[in-house]
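Support case: user asked for a sample of complex input and structure output to validate their parser. Sending the pair below.
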Amino acid sequence: MKGPESETMPDSRATGGGANQPVDRREFLSRSLPAGWVLLAAFTGCGGEPSAPAGGSEASAREAGSAPDSGSQAPASEVETSAARDPLAGYDPSQHKYAMAIDVDRCIGCGRCVEACKTENDVPREPFYFRTWIERYVIQRNGNTVVTSPNGGISGFPPVEEAEILRTFFVPKLCNHCDHPPCVQVCPVGATFKTEDGVVLVDHDYCIGCRYCIQACPYGARFLHPVTRTAEKCTFCYHRLVKGLVPACVEMCPTQARIFGELNARSSPLARFQRMHKIQTLKSHLNTEPKVLYANLDGEVS
Amino acid sequence: MASVSQTLRPPLVAGDKRPAEVTRDICAALDRRPGAGWWAMFLPAFALLLLGVTAVTYEIATGIGTWGLNRTVGWAFDITNFVFWIGIGHAGTLISAILFLLRQRWRTSVNRSAEAMTIFAVLCAGMFPVIHLGRPWFAYWMLPYPNARGSLWINFRSPLVWDFFAILTYFTISLVFWYVGLIPDLATIRDRTKPGLRRRVLEILSLGWDGSYRTWQRYETVYKLLAGLATPLVISVHTIVSWDFATAVIPGWHTTIFPPYFVAGAIFSGMAMVLTLMTVARKAMGLEDYITVAHIDKMAKVTLATSLMVGLSYLTEFFTAFYSGNQYEEFVFLNRALGPFAWGYWIMLACNVGIPQLFWFRKVRWNPFLVFIVSVFVNIGMWFERFVIIVTSLHRDFLPSSWAGYAPTSIELATLAGSFGLFFTCFLLFCRFVPVIAISEVKGVLSVGRSRQPAGRRPLRSGGATEEASVLG
């Protein structure tokens, strides 16, 4: 994904210490030999394994979420230098619990959120890769419901031509960042995980592309990225969250149909929205506890 | 005396064979050069294997976009083929382990080839979970070994991990069981082989078998223990495969009936494959006296019983969907029978429930040609069963906006053909290099001595006094 600065966490042994001080030849050799071995191991990758958690806020989020076992062996001075480049520097996930609310009545189906998401997150442009998309529901008088999402609604929707229409409306959809995520349970290698602040992420370095999570997700929120060959999904624009920004789709929505914020805050736009509206979630019978909250949702939507 | 004779069961091996004849008959295929018939089967099988290798190489190099998968149908041919092949293997273990413990002695004529079939089927099955990965070169990350991947460890909550262990265990036990059963026969071949490299290899493989009482006693203890170890696997492996589906929340998958349903289906399909192979092999290799129509009859009965179990499962699935009142479940099952893939559903029903009912008739069961035809239909039906479960459940998922169709690409078809190529190549090689019938076990069920005629008056087909002595001994 196209995050902020995607720096790899420096390998402590490989970079060594005190590079600015003069060193004699023997010392240099004795230092560089093990470093060379480590570098060699890193490049051959011990058979292709990533030698250290790769950069980007998502991989770092895992480290932050499981600090005691993170396996980081960097000495203190190295931690300080890497902290400057760490996208999570100064961010404490334990202080947050994110959620998104969607006011269905406000969505006009313009598709700006889909466009913003694709641009921000480098989502493939083909019409079947989406991290967020919009569905149009057309409920006819005879009781039939037609659900469409042409190219995810990225260019809006064609006029409805069916006669005898009872009601039409748009429903933006995305990963629900479940509190009990079925995708995390089924991932065989633990590449999908839930962060401490409640966001469900995929670590692209560890995903083997088995697609079990794609099948397991009841919200159809995942896909296999054709280039990385790994599972992809909405991250709530995690790289923006850690900088205090809101997700791109929320930023772009012209009608403020999407509201993003802290779930447990007493005073926030999200908290106010929750107080003022009757909140529903998708497929609540599956007990996944979604963190995408809908208001004014028609009973036809599931 | 006559009344006593009548209470004896009919002999399991026809032709009133003597032990030496058994050895000669079964080793005949190993002694002679392969005939035109063998080559006529081997070359197409090997060509299919090469086709499959090409398709898989292309797929791994290019990516799984070469398959007809889409966002909604993320598993299709790959997992269908996987479940199909792993199911085929089950009959081998059932025959070799469970029927051994239940003292069903008719198994001796078919157990060797059924076990070989298990091993080859598990090989074919094991290929699919690996090649279906987006990044197959990281398949070994499923192994829990000390690694350099930081704090990460495999996720033991994932049914795919259970699956990985189940299949690995199954393959290992099947292979060991097969090999241990082969040891006395390897020794037999060793003793018939002239000194040279082949004999030297056989000496090593037969682990110094000397035919003494002590050797036999050890062997039988190990065999019994391995049968005990393999028995739970008949149940566990396909149960765990079914959990791949049953633990997901997809309607049509999320159901508690899956484990028994899958196990019955696996034994059903495996028996059908044993019948397909054996009806041909007995004819082609001249083993009609060993794999008699009575054997085929028994296996056809098992096939019929499991067909009824599978039919009951189909009904139960529908009943559960109806009785639950869950609109998603109801939709999935109606869609199976009436939706875009209804043809697959009805092929499945016809082949798995309809056609096997012919096995109620003794005339059908005792006619190897008809049994062969029915068994081929069952194989087709069982492949479609997995296709129906996987694809029809996925193509109409929770999100109407992402509903999609599915059609296999030529690469997927070539991969399926390649798996059949691998299976038949292995099986044909097995027929050439390993005794297809367990010589030592068949000798234990011979009807020698049944005849009330004095031994001296019986016409000897071959051999002389030494063979007569071995019969009596």
